[in-house]
Design a protein that fits this description.
The complex is a heterodimer. By secondary structure, chain A is of the alpha+beta class. Helices cover about 45% and strands about 15% of the residues of chain A. In chain B, helix 1 packs parallel to helix 3, helix 6 runs antiparallel to helix 9 and helix 8 runs antiparallel to helix 9. Chain B is globular, with a radius of gyration of 21 Å. The chains are: A alpha+beta, B alpha+beta. At the A-B interface, strand 1, helix 1, helix 4, helix 9 and helix 10 of A face strand 1, helix 3, helix 6, helix 7 and helix 8 of B. Strand 1 of chain A pairs antiparallel with strand 1 of chain B.
Chain lengths: ~375, ~350
């Protein structure tokens, strides 16, 4: 058998399914009660701090955070099923998304004891909201080209530069910023970078909206004008920023949010076909099959990560296939609908949002072109 | 509160000792076989070797002279044999024909079997390896009953034809008396046959596609143009990446269906959906893999002497067996639309539209 790109499949056992059904029942009741309106791409576009706090009360945030830091001390697999259930129902999860997915695990791995005590309990309660500051106006896929400067001063560091595409910065309490703490050495581009925990309300921080093409405000430009970062708000080691931000990529790239961003649209299309509001078409089955296969693949990657196996290439495979597929669902449903045919407010709302969000699917978290390169490296071609 | 991952997820992998034996066996076969031909005939020498190792009856129960293997192991055998383009009727003889005989309580002398579903007039089309079989296992829908008959080859008419892969794919005509004398079996057997056939084909196609990925990777490392291996070009890297990704997705879908089949001995009501997902993902992957691999291999990959067509032709031939890609996508569409908005996710996670507590 050839070297496998993706870990072998794994079957979900009853203990996990129990949790899945518990979350599903709660969410069905929330939808019925009108606590939120299901939507697409909710992990970027739907903020609801009340809902986030309610998840915290139920023990569905900070799931992989140990109990001594206010978390649940559970497994990545348990978090996986909770995440899937939240996404398929189109719940408003953006407020805690970044903290839950990236910030918590990074703090656990690289944070000081004081930092863990300071942030993890609030993250696990859904009260502390984080963003992430990596991209810059001239630094997208080529992250090593970041120009935000960190200069050592008495008592800490001063950060100067501009971060862009920071989702939710206008709502968040803090973010992780990647900055150059030493000048760029063209021979060793990945050296000299560091991560800092930045209070977004600190003097010198200016947040400006970047309005998306549909008129919505999710992204921001964050200017850092000599912002003072206390010495105890360096994350991990000075100079180790690159390895720190790339070490957690498998978690970031293989999750169900890379597959399910348009699931509510797919479900609405299935219903519309059953009701005769859309023509019956085998393309629905094709897309459902891909979502099902990706659900298994994403679960297999989570199982491998749970067992501390390397899954960087497999995660890139999930992300390339998943983000392409979730965008294709938007385009597919669009090709089935005809204006002047039938009024379907719910389907139209989901479809229009999905089409406008779609370009971002294959860009965020590493473009699919970069990821195909990652896969080619995994295959031994580079 | 469960925190032990072993209580949460059970990886499903074939027996590593079996995989090691098979890997060596087929590597040996690949190294010693003749150059590829346009028409492909049964390799009796290989069949005998497989028989001696107990592999031609891998899934037969031990009481019936089989090796008592499960579907996960059987799929590994089918996949590795397909990767070696081995011209042997493992699916027909063991997981389909052998199973039907056992389900009907008919004796199995171990003679080479193929399998088919004749129409009401007793004719079956595209019966692979029929001319080479000692008898043909027929599953026949007679009014509202399913019958299984084991009919000796000298009692059927065989019109020799070949499929896209150049393999025997004959038209078989039965004497209706022989079919009517078949043993009545449970309806579940009749319904499962199509699913078992579709999943066996999926396992074979995935195995062949995984070998295509290896052939492609070897080529892009060796072949140089413009002074460097073509695998250094980003355009080629992306093409190969897409081939590998689609193959991986087909593998994930097939493994999930195999795990469900193995865990429930095919009784899980979600099998139709699970097999449909596998057949759909495998079939669509085949388009990308066949097109892309021939593009990467260039003109040499289109020649008779090259290994590639020994893989791509069976990939295309088998993806259309036990239901076309369109048939399966329509089946999934019907399941998905009847599940509707509120139960689509339940369908995806369990194969059924109704929630069932574990």
């Amino acid at each position: 058998m050839s070297a496998r790109l993706v870990p072998p499949g794994a079957r979900e056992l009853p203990a996990l399914t129990e949790l899945r059904l518990e979350v599903r029942a709660f969410l069905a009741q929330q939808v019925a009660a009108g606590a939120f309106v299901p939507h697409v791409d909710t992990w970027l576009t739907r903020w609801n701090r009340d809902f986030t706090r309610e998840l915290g009360r139920r023990g569905w945030l900070g799931m992989v955070v140990p109990t001594e830091y206010g978390g649940q001390g559970r497994t990545y697999l348990e978090r996986f099923v909770v995440t899937e259930e939240l996404l398929v129902v189109g719940a408003p999860v953006a407020a805690h998304w970044i903290a839950e997915r990236q910030i918590g695990p990074s703090l656990l791995r690289y944070g000081t004891e004081e930092q863990k005590q300071a942030f993890l309990p609030g993250i696990s309660r859904g009260e502390v909201v984080f963003g992430i500051g990596m991209s810059e106006p001239d630094s997208g896929s080529d992250l090593a080209s970041v120009r935000t400067r960190a200069e050592r001063v008495d008592g800490g560091w001063r950060l100067t530069g501009t971060k862009v595409w920071t989702s939710g910065a206008h709502e968040a309490d803090a973010f992780f910023a990647l900055a150059r703490s030493a000048p760029l050495d063209p021979a060793h581009r990945h050296e000299g970078m560091s991560q800092f925990i930045v209070d977004l309300r600190a003097p010198g921080v200016t947040i400006r909206p970047i309005i998306s093409m549909g008129g919505d405000h999710h992204f921001n430009e964050v200017h850092l004008d000599g912002v003072l970062i206390p010495g105890d708000r360096v994350l991990g080691e000075i100079g180790e920023g690159w390895s720190q931000v790339t070490s957690e990529l498998a978690h970031e790239r293989s999750g169900p949010e890379r597959v399910l961003s348009t699931f509510q649209l797919l479900a609405a299309a299935a219903q519309a076909m059953d009701d005769g509001r859309l023509p019956t078409d085998p393309g629905l089955g094709r897309h459902v099959a891909r979502v099902a296969a990706l659900h298994h693949m994403s679960f297999a990657v989570s199982t491998a990560l749970e067992n501390h196996e390397d899954a960087d290439t497999a995660a890139a495979v999930v992300k390339v296939l998943g983000t392409t597929g979730e965008g294709d669902i938007a385009d597919y449903v669009d090709t089935l609908t005809a204006t002047g045919w039938a009024l379907d407010e719910e389907l139209d709302t989901l479809l229009h949002a999905a089409i406008l969000q779609r370009p971002g699917f294959t860009l965020r978290g590493g473009t699919n072109e970069i990821l195909r390169g990652v896969i080619a490296r995994g295959l031994g071609m580079r | 509160m469960a925190t032990d991952p072993r209580e949460l997820a059970a990886p499903t992998t074939p027996d590593p000792d079996l995989v090691a034996v098979l890997t060596e066996l087929f590597a040996d076969y690949r190294a010693t076989r003749a150059t590829p031909t346009a028409v492909v005939d049964l390799d009796r020498g290989l069949w005998q070797r497989l028989e001696e190792l107990g592999l031609t009856r891998l899934t037969g129960s031990e009481s019936a002279g089989g090796s008592g293997g499960g579907w996960v192991d059987a799929a590994a055998l089918l996949g590795l044999a397909a990767a070696a383009a081995a011209p042997v009727p493992l699916a027909e003889h063991d997981v389909l024909g052998g199973w039907l005989l056992e389900a009907a309580g008919l004796p199995n002398d171990g003679g080479l079997r193929t399998v088919c579903r004749p129409d009401p007039s007793g004719v079956a089309l595209n019966v692979t390896w029929a001319r080479d079989a000692s008898s043909v296992v027929a599953l026949w829908e007679d009014r509202d009953q399913w019958r299984v008959a084991d009919v000796p080859i000298d009692r059927v008419g065989v019109e020799e034809r070949r499929n896209l892969a150049g393999e025997p794919s004959d038209t078989v005509e039965f004497d209706l008396d022989d079919l009517e004398a078949g043993i009545v079996v449970d309806h579940a057997i009749g319904e499962q046959f199509h699913l078992r056939g579709a999943l066996a084909r999926s396992a074979q196609v995935v195995g062949a596609m995984e070998r295509v990925v290896d052939v492609v990777l070897a080529h892009v490392r060796e072949r140089e143009q413009f002074g460097r291996p073509i695998g250094r070009f980003q355009a080629v890297q992306h093409l190969v990446s897409d081939i590998a990704c689609e193959t991986a997705l087909a593998r994930a879908a097939t493994d999930a269906a195999l795990a469900r089949a193995a865990a429930s001995d095919w009784t899980d009501p979600g099998m139709l959906f699970a097999v449909g997902v596998a057949k759909s993902c495998v079939g669509h992957a085949a388009s990308v893999v066949v097109r892309g691999s021939h593009q990467v291999l260039g003109a040499i990959g289109t020649t008779l002497e090259h290994e590639l067509h020994t893989l791509t032709r069976p990939i295309l031939a088998r993806r259309s067996e036990y239901g076309s890609l369109q048939d399966w996508d329509e089946t999934l569409t019907a399941l998905a639309s009847s599940a509707g908005h509120d139960r689509l996710w339940t369908l995806i996670t369990t194969g059924r539209a109704k929630t069932q507590r574990p």
